[in-house]
Structure to design on (648 residues):
């Protein structure tokens, strides 16, 4: 089934603009039978072109300032109407939201929780504002209200009882786009919100809003109308289940490039910021002759923001890099070019570069207890002087010191509160993408860029790799994760969940970075460590963080990267009714065989219906086992994993 008519698609709520006194566009220019329609008031018009591309619907909006004065636009919104809810078969029961629908929440940045909810669930928002600002987009916070759901970039909504499935996603990335599901009491709807970040739209001018695609189950979707880098027609057909729709969407937006897996060593989880130049060189010596990455993490700078100034533990960074290269390896380094520590020389010398609130005080972007000042500020990337500083630091690290890989951390900070940026000629997403492009242009295409704590959509096509979850840790789940009412603090559980729910991005948008392997973790049980190692093998970036003395046999068996063995790695049960927020089943298939990886992140043993998994993969289960399916269920204990071969 496909939603065929646009007159059923848009609701009577009509698009809204917020910013210029929250003006609402009226419906008088709405002509539902036309492929181009418009909504107008005295100040602005939202034109909406509706086209069918293959079996998907595409909405192409343009916002026009009809007045003789500039307009400040914070956001624009349209509501998808009752036909969407009817398509999904959603009904309210006894005054409460039905439980048959499931909603996928794609997080805003690397560390944002990403999971699928029953629409009756409560999306967790911490009571501590500092936790929220380091994990979420402050313009799109979780609601803490049952049935009020949101997502960034794309969402899926599924009727897990009857089967209808819907995917809605943005296909350009000049704004941040949110999808808000309203499934509580009253009228049901899904809103599409374009976040323009207080953008100033010039008089008698217009801005193209990012197009939206809508695809549904029941019809094969295709990218065969797309073109490759040489302009030739290319693409493939995809099944319209949750796996196929996500692959179709990712292939629709992916950059036209190939990615090579990254293996190596990282300093962070071994010594954190206590690492020395001698430690890094020792790790390089232990891996001499191996074509791997040696990445120095935090701990070399005199203060965060003063990247050209090293402390006494690193007497000569250039000498360290030459040592690594002489051993046949690539040298990488961590930096955070968009933040500044409160006590740094940069903060003292250029206070005008900081993002400031309405009262003129610097905005605290987050905190790190390891740092002298604890708290850090954000740099205003709308200012040309800040971009020149970013260019200068990047040039120093790559072209003077000789680094071949840059890990760009805490990257969410400058656009955490976009209304506070000094200039408004672009959207916050465009300002951030411009800043990333400065790094890419300065570093060159030969330098590997890895994003961390980074908003996802503006980075597509610029970074080579992306952290896809919160930091791992040598604990399963921190005590303060529940205390803070969040699923966003560091630990194996939360890190593994995001690695699974973002599997489809790997080798399409970038290489997924699940974070580092480590060995010394006495607070983890043996089964928890095994689960952690298996999940970290599902990405394209695989770094160990151990004492160099443990590298005598190379990187070890931990780096038998799954992605090099299996060409197909699909999460099967993201929208399953049985998995709640914690998916469990990964399908692995390659030249050497096929298997299922069952991962239990819950606090109870799970009964995996193997016959149902195989049925969904197209195996003739009745022919194989008759009707006695129950004996083929697989029990997986809590916080553990099990690999089930399907072929010999």
């Amino acid at each position: 089934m496909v939603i065929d008519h646009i007159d059923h698609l848009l609701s009577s709520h009509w698009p809204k603009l917020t910013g210029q006194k929250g003006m609402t566009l009226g419906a008088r220019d709405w002509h539902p039978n036309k492929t181009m329609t418009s909504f107008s008031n005295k100040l602005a018009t939202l034109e909406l072109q509706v086209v069918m591309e293959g079996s998907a619907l595409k909405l192409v909006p343009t916002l026009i300032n009809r007045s003789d004065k500039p307009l400040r636009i914070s956001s624009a919104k349209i509501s998808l109407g009752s036909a969407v809810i009817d398509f999904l078969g959603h009904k309210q029961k006894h005054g409460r939201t039905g439980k048959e629908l499931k909603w996928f929440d794609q997080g805003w940045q690397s560390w944002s929780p990403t999971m699928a909810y029953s629409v009756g669930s409560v999306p967790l928002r911490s009571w501590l504002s500092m936790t929220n600002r380091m994990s979420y987009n402050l313009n799109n916070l979780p609601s803490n209200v049952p049935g009020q759901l949101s997502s960034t970039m794309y969402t899926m909504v599924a009727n897990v009882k009857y089967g209808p499935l819907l995917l809605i996603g943005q296909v350009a990335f000049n704004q941040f786009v949110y999808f808000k599901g309203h499934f509580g009491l009253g009228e049901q709807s899904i809103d599409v919100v374009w976040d323009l970040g207080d953008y100033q739209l010039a008089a008698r001018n217009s801005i193209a809003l990012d197009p939206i695609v809508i695809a549904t189950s029941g019809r094969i979707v295709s990218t065969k109308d797309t073109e490759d880098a040489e302009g030739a027609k290319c693409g493939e057909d995809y099944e319209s289940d949750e796996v196929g729709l996500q692959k179709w969407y990712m292939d629709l937006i992916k950059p036209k490039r190939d990615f090579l897996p990254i293996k190596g060593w990282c300093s962070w989880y071994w010594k954190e910021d206590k690492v020395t130049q001698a430690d890094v060189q020792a790790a390089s010596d232990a891996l001499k002759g191996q074509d791997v990455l040696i990445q120095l993490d935090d701990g070399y700078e005199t203060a965060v923001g003063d990247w050209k100034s090293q402390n006494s533990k690193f007497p000569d960074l250039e000498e360290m890099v030459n040592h690594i290269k002489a051993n046949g390896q690539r040298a990488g380094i961590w930096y955070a070019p968009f933040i500044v520590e409160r006590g740094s020389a940069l903060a003292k010398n250029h206070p005008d570069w900081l993002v400031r609130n309405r009262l003129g005080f610097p905005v605290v972007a987050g905190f790190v207890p390891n740092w002298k000042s604890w708290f850090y500020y954000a740099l205003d990337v709308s200012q040309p002087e800040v971009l020149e500083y970013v260019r200068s630091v990047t040039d120093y690290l790559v072209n003077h010191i000789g680094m071949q890989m840059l890990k760009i951390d805490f990257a969410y900070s400058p656009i955490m509160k976009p209304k506070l940026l000094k200039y408004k000629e672009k959207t916050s997403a465009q300002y951030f993408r411009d800043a990333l492009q400065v790094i890419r242009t300065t570093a060159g295409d030969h330098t590997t860029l890895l994003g961390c704590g980074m908003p996802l959509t503006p980075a597509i096509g610029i970074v080579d790799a992306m952290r896809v979850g919160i930091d791992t840790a040598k604990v399963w789940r921190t005590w303060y994760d529940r205390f803070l009412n969040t699923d966003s603090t560091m630990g194996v559980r939360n890190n593994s969940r995001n690695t699974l729910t973002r599997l489809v991005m790997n080798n399409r948008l970038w290489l997924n970075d699940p974070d580092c392997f480590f060995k010394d973790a006495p607070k983890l049980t043996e089964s928890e460590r095994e689960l952690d190692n298996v999940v970290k093998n599902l990405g394209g970036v695989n770094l160990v963080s151990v004492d160099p003395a443990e590298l005598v046999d190379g990187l070890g068996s931990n780096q038998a990267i799954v992605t090099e063995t299996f060409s197909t790695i699909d999460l099967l049960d993201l929208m399953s009714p049985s998995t709640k927020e914690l998916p469990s089943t990964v399908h692995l298939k390659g030249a050497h065989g096929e298997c299922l990886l069952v991962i239990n992140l819950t606090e109870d043993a799970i009964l995996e219906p193997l016959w149902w998994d195989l049925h969904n993969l197209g195996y003739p289960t009745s022919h194989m086992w008759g009707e006695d399916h129950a004996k083929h269920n697989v029990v997986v204990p809590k916080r553990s994993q099990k690999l089930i071969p399907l072929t010999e």
The chain is about 20% helix and 25% strand. The longest helix spans residues 384-400. The radius of gyration is 25 Å. Residues 585-645 form one domain.
